[in-house]
Amino acid sequence: MRTVIVDCGATKADWLCSDGTQVRTPGFNLAHTPADQLQPILEAAARELPDIDKLYLYAAGLVGESPVDLGKWFPKAGIEYASDMLGAARAVCGRRPGIAAIVGTGANTCQYDGEKITAQVPCGGYILGDEGSASVLGKLFLSDYLKGFVPEDLAQEFAQTFPASYPEIVQQVYRTPAPARYLGSLAPFVVAHYKTNDYAKELVDRNFRAFFERTVRQYDALPLGIVGGFGYACRDILQSLANEYGITLSRIIASPLEGLKLYHGL
User: Fold this and answer.
1) Cα separations (Å) of 266 from 16, 87, 88, 210?
2) Which of 107, 117, 144, 233 has the most CB within a 10 Å radius?
């Protein structure tokens, strides 16, 4: 039986087959990606992954029925559509109750009973929420930088690393299609100075403390699992702060596919 798991985001989609075949395609949103863009992506995946018996698609914003039937491209497959949040919960909690979090460019969380999501604090996006995410860290830093609150040595290094005028920064944040991605791209610079710069440490800790205080602590006292590249890169920081809050960190992984392989028995 050939089974495929798909971890689909806005930028890329990773397809993993039970026979070991791995395919990466551009990302897509079944509700919003135009048909003329979606069709070649799915055609390419179907060519690389023929004769599929079962397909699990995990994608942002998917709840219940999909607006597009992937059966057109995978006619023999039984297809299950699920949100990326359920995918994260299955990846880090398996079939046990817990709290699951996606900590990447954005951030999202839920409480999970081992089968389904039972509670969810709205993430709010990078403007109203997304505490703990790379984009929010970038936003906090950039706001301080523009207003002169970043220590001079760090500000000078940032200006050399990311040479951009004030109008260019405003253009990136307010007039491009992916401002959260731009803000998130600044986060590694801040984290790289975590151990050597008191300001950077305070900013990173503030971002993650807001994540614990404004989202995680609203759920029952269950083990917390985290999935996402930014969270994985900051796993030691998250572990230290979780200890302060008395929160058990069960697992931190970079990609949900690592856990979904085990969940689906691939």
Assistant:
1) 9, 15, 17, 36
2) 107
If asked whether residues 132 and 195 sit together in one domain, one would say yes
55 neighbors 77 (Cβ within 8 angstroms): yes
How many structural domains compose the chain?
Answer: 2
User: Which amino acid is residue 5, in one-letter code?
Assistant: I
Asked if residues 231 and 253 have their Cβ atoms less than 8 Å apart, the reply is no
Percent of the chain with pLDDT over 70: 98
CATH code of the domain covering residue 144: 1.10.720.160
pLDDT score at 64: 67
- Whole-angstrom distance, CA of residue 96 vs CA of residue 192: 35
- Domain assignment of residue 160, yes or no: yes
Instruction: Tell me the CATH number at 45.
Output: 3.30.420.40
Burial class (CB in 10 A: 0-12, 13-18, 19+), 92: buried
- pTM assigned to the model: 0.86
Residue 156: domain span: 128-206
Backbone angles phi, psi at 154, to 5 degrees: -70, -40
Burial of 9 from C-beta contacts in 10 A (0-12 / 13-18 / 19+)? middle
pLDDT digits 0-9 by tens, 148-192: 999 999 999 999 998 888 888 888 888 887 788 889 999 999 999
**253 assigned to some structural domain:** no
Residue 167 counted as domain residue: yes
Q: 194 and 134: one domain?
A: yes
Q: How far apart are the first and last CA of the chain?
A: 11
